[in-house]
Amino acid sequence: MTDNKERLLRRAIELAAEARAGGNPPFGSLLADAEGRVLAEERNTTLTDADISAHPELKLARWAARELDPATAAATTMYTSCQPCPMCAGAIQRSGLGRVVFALSGEQLVALKPGGDFPDVPQEGPALYEEARVPVEGYY
Description:
Layout: H1 3-21, E1 28-32, E2 38-43, H2 56-67, H3 70-74, E3 77-82, H4 86-95, E4 99-104, H5 106-112, H6 129-132
Parallel strand pairs: 3-4
Antiparallel strand pairs: 1-2, 1-3
Pfam families: dCMP_cyt_deam_1 (PF00383)
GO molecular function, one term: catalytic activity
Organism: Streptosporangium saharense
């Protein structure tokens, strides 16, 4: 890892500490361009915003999708204090960001949490294919 990457990852960890000091879960992220310039920073605000989706990675992915053209987004790197959760990973993928560099892995995070990870929610499907495909067919 280069000195610049370490500097950016350390800043993401600082943002996580700021989130915790502000009464939120300890997660922070930033988005940098190809030259390592910080384009945007975010902290977790799930508690203070009363919004379970207010993860910093999701907020940055949404910002990038609104503010950056596809080529610029593809040249960015997100530096984050922890590996993105599945919700955030999906948003990052859809926003077209170039890559992610994280400090803690999801597995390491779960090991640090007294209650472990969130329980799986049972899912059922697919069902009603002929009906469900009608509004989707031809959209893409």
